[in-house]
Every structure is written in C-alpha cells, then in structure tokens.
Design a protein that fits this description.
The structure holds 2 protein chains of 2 kinds. Chain A is built from 7 helices and 20 strands. In chain A, 25% of the residues lie in helices and 31% in strands. Chain A folds into 2 domains: 5-118 and 250-294, FAD/NAD(P)-binding domain (3-Layer(bba) Sandwich), CATH 3.50.50; 121-247, 3-Layer(bba) Sandwich (FAD/NAD(P)-binding domain). In chain A, a hairpin with a 3-residue loop joins strand 6 (85-90) and strand 7. By secondary structure, chain A is α/β, with parallel strands linked by helices. The two termini of chain A are 17 Å apart. Chain A has helices at residues 14-25, 53-56, 62-75, 138-147, 163-174, 193-201, 282-294; strands at residues 5-10, 30-33, 49-51, 60-61, 79-81, 85-90, 94-99, 102-113, 117-119, 128-129, 135-137, 155-159, 178-183, 207-208, 211-217, 224-229, 234-239, 242-245, 249-251, 269-271. Chain B has 3 domains: 2-44 and 151-217 and 344-388, FAD/NAD(P)-binding domain (3-Layer(bba) Sandwich); 83-145 and 221-338, 2-Layer Sandwich (D-Amino Acid Oxidase, Chain A, domain 2); 408-483, Arc Repressor Mutant, subunit A (Orthogonal Bundle). In chain B, the strands form 4 sheets. In chain B, strands 5, 6, 7, 13, 14, 15, 16, 17 and 18 form a 9-stranded mixed beta sheet that branches. The longest helix of chain B has 20 residues, at 61-80. The relative contact order of chain B is 0.17. Classes of the chains: A alpha/beta, B alpha+beta. At the A-B interface, strand 7, strand 8, strand 10 and helix 4 of A face strand 18, helix 9 and helix 12 of B. Bound molecules: flavin-adenine dinucleotide (2 copies). One flavin-adenine dinucleotide is lined by residues 10-16, 33-36, 41-43, 46, 50-51, 85-86, 114-117, 163-164, 167, 255, 273-275, 279-283, 285 of chain A. One flavin-adenine dinucleotide is lined by residues 9-15, 32-35, 39-43, 46-49, 51, 150, 173-174, 201-205, 209, 225, 267, 283-284, 333, 335, 366-372 of chain B.
Chain lengths: 297, 485
C-alpha cells in the first residue's frame, strides 16, 4: 500500500507544529493542515509574555513563540496547508481537507490529531434571564481584540478566575476598560501564583469569591448580571455591559469520536497537545507532542 | 409617499407568508417590520413542530388549516427548498387520565381527517422508541408530524416573496394608522405609506397595533416558556417527536429531534411580569452596535433555572436514560394568549382570530400551530382580499420556487470539489463545528443579512458546540468586508 504522505498533522498550534517538526527531522513526509492564516493556534491570540522559558530560554509572548516555530517550519520539509480544515478522518486512513479553492482526500500512514481545545460556553452554563449580546468566552475576546482588532464593551465582569481570565482581565484593564469584578466559585482564585501576582493583583481587579453568576439582564445588550454568594444564597445585581466567561477548556476530539472502537482509538491516530489533555505550560506541551509523535507504532 | 395594494405590519412567519400569498394573487405588497430581520418575534423560538391536527376542536378553522397544512408541508418545503425531518410523532401517557386524553385526541383526529393515526399500547410505543420509560402505558402515533426550523421556513418564505416583488422595509416601526377615502395611511417612525388593504400581523403587539385604528376587542396576555437544546447529534436518541401527556393535569413535555440534529426539550409554561427587569424584551429596534456587529438577540422572554430543572425532571420520567447534561444552550420564548375584552372578559380564545373590518385585517395572537399554518393562513387571507378586488386568477408570473442556497456540506465529495475549484471561498471553513464556509457567509450577506445574528440563522454558523467562541471574530470580519464597513 502506498500512502500520499507518511503523516498528516491535523492542527497547527504549538502541539501540531512541534509534532510536525519532530517527524520531519526523523525523515517522514508530513502535511500539516491548519485553518489559520498562519500556524500558531491559540498562541496567535496571546500577546502576553510567559512562553518559551524552557525551550528557548527566553520570556516570549505567545505570538513570538509561534513565530519561532514558524521559522523552524519554513526551514523544514513540512508541507503547511494554511487556511485548511480537516473535515473528516476515515477508518481507511484518508482525510478530507478543505481550503480556499482546494478540496482533497489525502491518505496517510499515521495521523497526529492536534486540534486543540474549545472553551466551555456561557450558553451551556444555563444562566437564567435574557439572552443579550455582550456575553463571550475569554478565547473569543482574545481573538476579537488581539487578532482582529474588534472592540467589545467597556464595563466588564469575568466569570472564572483561571490563568486565561486573569491575563485577559489585566490586558483589558490596561487598554482602558473597567474590569468591575472577577467572580469565582471557589474560595480562592485559580491559576498560577506567578500570574496572580503579575496580572490580578497588579491590575487591582476585585475578586468576588465563593460566588457565581446566575442571571443575565438586558434586552438586546447586556445591562447587568445577578451574582449569587454560594454559601448564603444571597443575590446581588451588578451593572455591566460585558460578561466574559473563562470556565475551562475541553479537548476537541470530535474528529476522532467516530473512529473510537470499544473506547479505543486506532493505533495510527495519536492525539497530542490540548486535544490530548489541557496543558498550562506550552513548553511541556511541545516536548510531550514531540515524544508522542516519535513513538514507533 | 409609498403606495401599494396591501401593507402588512410585521415580518414574522405570518407576515412573510402573507407577502408571498399576496404576490401570488398579483397584489403589490409592502411589509413593514420594526426589527432588522424577519422572524425575530414569536417566530424566532418555537418548537418547530408541524402538527398533524388532532389537538384542535373538530369543525374549527384551526383544525381544517392544520390538517391541510400538514398534508401539504412536504410540497411547501420542496418549493421553498427547506429541510425538514419527516419523523412522525408519538403522544405518550402513563395512566388512566392520560389514556383518556389520548383516546379523545384519536377520536378528534379521525373526525378532523388526520391520516394514519394509530392507538398503541406501552410495548408498541417502546418498540418505536426504545428509550421510553417502562411506565408508559399508551400512545398515539401520527405519521405526518414533521420537525422544521421555524426561522429557516420564515426566511425562505421571505426570500421567495421578495424575489417575486414584495417589498420589505426593516427598522420601520408603525406608530399611527388612519383611514382615508380609499384605504389607509400608515405612519412609521421614518415615513408614511398608503394602501388599500391593511393587514396587522404584529405578533405580540398585534393587540396594540389593532387599537391604533379600532376599538379594543381581543387582547394578548404573554406567558413565558423555557427550552433546553442538547448537543449536536443528540437527536439520534429519538426517531419521533414525543408529546408526553402527564398523569396529573398540567403542562406536558415535548421532545423534538430537530432538523439540525439536536434534541430540543420544552416548553415550560409560566407567567412573565409585564414590567421590570424580567419582563418581556421590548421587541424590535435595530442593533445599537450598528451593522456588521455581534448582534442583538431580539425579542424573547427570560429563561428560568427552575424551568430548566423542571424539564430535566420530566425528561427523566419519560426517557430515563437520556443524558440531559450535554447542553448546547437554553432559551426562553414568549407566548401570546389571546382573550376577549368587554362582556366576555378573560375568556381565552382557542381558534385562530382574524378580525376583519372594511379592508383592515388583524391576526391577533396566532399561537401554536401558527407556524404549521402560516402558509395556509396567508393563502386564506390573500384569497379573501383578492376576491374582494375581483381577482379571479393568480398571477401567472409568480414563481413559487425558491432556489436552495449553495451549501457545500450537502454536496457529494465530487460536487464539492468542483464547487470549491470554481468558487474558492466555498473551500475555506469558517465554522468548523457546523462545517460552514466563507462562501456561505458571503452569500448570506448578499441575500440580505446585515448582522452576525442574521448570518447565524441563515448559515447555521456559530450554532454548534463552541457557539461561535472560536469563529466569531473571523466571521465578523468577513461580514464587515462584505458590507464594506
Ligand atoms: C489564554 C492562554 C494563555 C496561556 N498562557 C500560557 C503561558 O503564559 N505560558 C505557557 O507556557 N503556556 C500558556 N498557555 C498554554 C499553551 O499556550 C497552550 O496550551 C498551547 O498553545 C495549546 O496548543 P495546541 O496546539 O494544543 O492547541 P491550539 O493552539 O488550540 O491549536 C490547535 C489548532 O488546531 C486547529 N484545528 C482545530 N480543528 C481542526 C481541524 N479540523 N482541521 C485542521 N486544524 C484544526 C485550530 O484551528 C488550532 O489552530 C496558555 C493558554 C491559553 C489558552
Ligand atoms: C413557545 C412557542 C412554541 C411554538 N411552537 C410551535 C410549533 O411547534 N408549531 C407551530 O406550528 N407553531 C408553534 N408556535 C406558534 C408560532 O410560532 C406562531 O404562531 C408564529 O410564529 C406567529 O408568527 P407571527 O408572524 O404572528 O408573530 P411574530 O413572529 O411575533 O411576528 C410579528 C412581527 O411584527 C413585528 N411588529 C410588531 N409591532 C410592530 C410595529 N408596530 N411595526 C412594525 N413591526 C411590528 C415584530 O417585530 C415581529 O417581527 C409556537 C409559539 C410559541 C410561543
């Protein structure tokens, strides 16, 4: 049997790029497909520092970190398909790829699934009240603001206090927005201690602990949220025009789901990066992805 | 001043189908809609069930129109190129009271001429729907019931009416009506129009629009409803629409495998305060953020956590093994309850209400199955107006066919390859959850969408698992590029 390529890499975030490079170095022919204009995945939305200490020995922004990897890719034999999405992966080891002007089926020996993660949506939180505009996930806002130069509202409440939320809250505060509160259901904020000092405390963002948002208000646009203090059940209204949720990432294995047999994936399909499990540190993720990609079948 | 034979106030399902039916009769039509798109009122969030017609009192206009509409529905969808699920329905019950109700519906259904009805015992129900609870003792099967996306139907009717010459004016709220020597003068916030015949299809505001020119007669009370929409693919759990009739008198539960592949559960029923923060959305208006932005979400009603809890508990009784945790979203809907003012005060009305006073027609509180019957109601009223005008034949130039937009995910691999080669934008996927391409987003804007929300409803983009979290920014950019803003 002859394959079009040795390896198809689905997704060109940190995980996909690291895996593709490792495989190309080992002599495999590799095609890497990613929907973005240029590879990078969520790194392209990260304008803050804190990337690359381990791998490059430097404190880089996410965008810079992605640029380093892109340079390595250009020097490698990896074929990058930008603006290309893998529509399906079939049991006969072919995949359907769609990009501008080009729809193709590619057969491969192995497939690295590096499709990343998606965020838990505010819609799935089953909040009471109306369904106004002005409610976003943190990743969506990062994309809007940092990648596409779009604006959001002025008076912002965050739900969830993990790293993603803290970093974005501090960035929005620095850009002149009012971050009114960060609501967290636990009794202390989440995220790395480093981030808490550098972002949350430095930007003076009020924390509302042991609490959650239970209701949205406003007809067409958000005008406020109801916040419930969990131990007492006491509810209060907070006026705002934007709610940003940062309530967790979910590995995106949807392309793999139809291939599952008895709870197992075929051995030629290897999930890496956030699509395997959610990583906090990109260097760890990149190193794991390399390793997983190189494990012989 | 703009003049037409007929003016329709409101571009909900009824307004869109009225415009289409009036054009079929060769009448010129202007539709005035306060919102920035069609189907943003009651029509934006219903159950999307095409009812078979056993729920309606024998002899009523509602019964006749429903049975006919259900029979003709596949043909209507063929003409308008709308996808629907021909799933049939099963009404279920678990006890003597529900059994009596179901038997009565069967008898009414037979009287109304509903085809194919079958009374079933519990085991027969479970053979059709293996997930049904062991407690179910009886059922009524109706093969004709379908599931359709209400706004997809409305948008298709709108596009077909518009392509046949109906004029739709958006962000145009009617504020005053007066009679003239020959017809009416209609004032809006932005201008004035005249017409010979006037139709009020203003949905939740139909009573107040009626009273701009006539005495109060029917008023609307508005109640709320909660819905739960489960994840993509969840519709596979069921093959029929399930109507569960509870044993204690009260609201039943409906489970709908939607045409998009999600399981829709609802609605509840509860009162909505008439004022204050949790009152109904003030329907309409335009997007305060301006065109091309992440849109406003239009009229509806607030959702209640208690309602969602109730739905889950009920679901557990009817289909115990159904996983209701994997939720796409929940939403509220507003429901009109028409009642008579004056002598018969507070008597609620069961049949469709069409008030008619010398060339002025008011459709007040057209509730379920208003979507099912929208086309038939439109034809019904258009025929009355045409007859009054001495029109005998429909306009031969009218073309009832709406072409389906190009949708790559509906093509075979080879067709799709040809399409993508000749139109590159159909190769670039913007929404990976629902496989929606840049070409479809651009086409939706060409077809009249000006907001993200309008594109969402025309393409299905941002309606899947990530709810737009990943793709909103990119889609917004394409829309703005297309609109030149
Ligand atoms: C806000 C935020 C801040 C962070 N901050 C830090 C930090 O300071 N320091 C640090 O070390 N780490 C940080 N991390 C962690 C680290 O950056 C991420 O875990 C890592 O970048 C994820 O890489 P990935 O390749 O797994 O996923 P992604 O970057 O999500 O890449 C997945 C790619 O796959 C593509 N894709 C999806 N489906 C398909 C398909 N069907 N076909 C083709 N392509 C597809 C996607 O478009 C995407 O480009 C942060 C993460 C976030 C979210
Ligand atoms: C919860 C629920 C579930 C339902 N489920 C089903 C079902 O499963 N099957 C079924 O067949 N039917 C169902 N229905 C019924 C169906 O949805 C309605 O009958 C139908 O949508 C009514 O459409 P409409 O055009 O009358 O109202 P609307 O869609 O509300 O349209 C009225 C329009 O008028 C506009 N308007 C109001 N005032 C003015 C003004 N002054 N100037 C200009 N414009 C104005 C509004 O903006 C609105 O767009 C359901 C209804 C509800 C509430």
């Amino acid at each position: 049997m002859s394959w079009d390529v040795n390896v198809l890499v689905v997704g060109g975030g940190a995980a996909g790029m690291a895996a593709a490079l490792a495989l190309a170095e080992a002599g495999a022919s590799v095609v890497m497909a990613d929907p973005g204009e240029k590879p990078g995945g969520i790194l392209n939305r990260c304008v803050h520092r804190g990337f690359g200490q381990g791998l490059f020995g430097e404190d880089l922004t996410g965008q810079e970190y992605a640029a380093r990897f892109r340079r390595l890719l250009r020097e490698s034999s990896v074929t990058v398909r930008p603006r290309t999405t893998v529509l399906s992966i079939l049991p006969d080891r072919t995949a359907v790829l769609s990009g501008p002007g080009r729809l193709e089926k590619i057969s491969f020996e192995r497939c690295i699934l590096a499709a990343g993660s998606y965020e838990r949506t505010p819609q799935s939180l089953l909040l009471g009240g109306t369904r106004p505009a002005g409610v976003y996930t943190a990743g969506c806002v990062q994309g809007l603001v940092h990648e596409y130069g779009q604006d959001i509202g002025q008076r912002i409440v965050f739900l969830g206090s993990g790293d993603v939320g803290q970093i974005l809250a501090a960035q929005l505060a620095a850009a002149g927005k009012q971050v009114l509160a960060m609501v967290e259901q636990k009794d202390r904020p989440g995220g790395l201690p480093r981030n808490r000092r550098e972002y949350l405390e430095a930007a003076n963002i009020p924390l509302i602990l042991q609490s959650t948002v239970t209701r949205l208000h406003g007809d067409r646009h958000l005008t406020g949220v109801t916040i419930c203090h969990l131990p007492t059940g006491k509810e209060s209204f907070l006026s705002c025009d934007t709610l940003i949720t940062a309530t967790g990432l979910i590995p995106d294995r949807r392309l793999a789901d139809p291939l599952m047999k008895d709870g197992k994936l075929p051995e030629w399909l290897i999930p890496v990066g956030n699509c395997r499990r959610i990583y906090d540190i990109v260097d760890v993720l990149a190193a794991d992805s390399r390793k997983l990609a190189l494990i012989p079948q | 001043m703009d003049r037409s034979d007929v003016i329709v106030i409101g571009a909900g399902l009824l307004g869109c189908f009225l415009a289409r039916a009036l054009r079929r009769q060769g009448l010129s039509v202007i539709v005035l809609e306060q919102s920035d798109d069609v189907c943003t009122g009651i029509s934006r969030s219903g159950s999307g069930i095409v009812y078979p017609g056993y729920d309606m009192a024998p002899g009523s206009l509602k019964a006749a129109l429903t049975v006919r509409s259900c029979r003709d529905f596949p043909a209507l969808c063929r003409d308008l190129s709308v996808n629907y699920r021909a799933c049939g329905s099963l009404m279920t019950g678990a006890g003597p009271r529900a059994e009596a109700v179901i038997r009565r519906k069967y008898v009414d259904g037979v009287k109304n001429g509903v085809p194919g009805l079958e009374l079933l015992d519990g085991d027969a129900c479970r053979r059709m729907e293996p997930l049904l609870s062991a407690n179910i003792t009886c059922g009524l099967y109706a093969p004709g019931t379908c599931a359709v996306n209400p706004w997809e139907l409305g948008i298709a009717a709108f596009e077909n009416a518009r392509d046949n010459g109906a004029r739709f004016v958006f962000s145009e709220k009617v504020t005053a009506l007066s009679r003239q020597a020959e017809g009416f003068s209609v004032c809006t916030e932005n201008g004035a129009y005249t017409c010979r015949d006037l139709i009020n299809a203003a949905g939740l505001s139909a009573d107040s629009v009626h009273e701009l020119i006539s005495r109060p007669s029917v008023r609307l009370k508005v109640t709320g409803a909660d819905y739960l929409l489960l994840e993509d693919g969840s519709a596979d759990a069921l093959s029929h629409v399930i109507f569960h009739e509870p044993e204690e008198k009260g609201k039943g539960l409906t489970l709908i495998p939607t045409a998009d592949g999600n399981l829709l559960i609802g609605p509840t029923e509860r009162d909505v305060p008439s004022s204050g923060d949790d009152a109904l959305y003030p329907a309409g208006g335009t997007d305060p953020a301006g065109p091309g932005h992440n849109g406003p979400q239009w009229a509806g009603a607030p959702t209640e956590a208690s309602g969602i809890r109730w739905l889950r508990e009920r679901c557990h009784e009817v289909v115990p093994e159904l996983d209701t945790e994997k939720v796409l979203r929940s939403f509220g809907a507003a429901r009109p309850r028409p009642y008579l003012t004056g002598a018969d005060q507070n008597k609620s009305l069961r049949d469709f209400v069409i008030l008619e006073e010398e060339q002025f027609y008011s459709l007040i509180g057209i509730k379920t199955p208003g979507m099912t019957c929208a086309a038939a109601l439109g034809e019904h009223l258009a025929a009355i107006i045409a007859q009054n005008r001495g029109i005998r034949e429909p306009d031969p130039a009218f073309d009832p066919i709406r072409k389906r937009p190009v949708i790559p995910r509906e093509c075979s691999f080879e067709e799709r390859q040809v399409l993508v080669r000749s139109h590159p934008a159909y190769g670039r996927i913007l929404c990976a959850c629902r496989d929606v391409t840049e070409g479809e987003v651009r086409d939706a804007v060409h077809r009249g969408a000006t907001t993200v929300e309008a594109v969402r409803r025309r393409t299905g983009a941002m309606m899947g698992t990530c709810q737009g979290g990943r793709c909103l920014a990119e889609i917004q950019e394409v829309i703005q590029d297309e609109l030149g803003c």
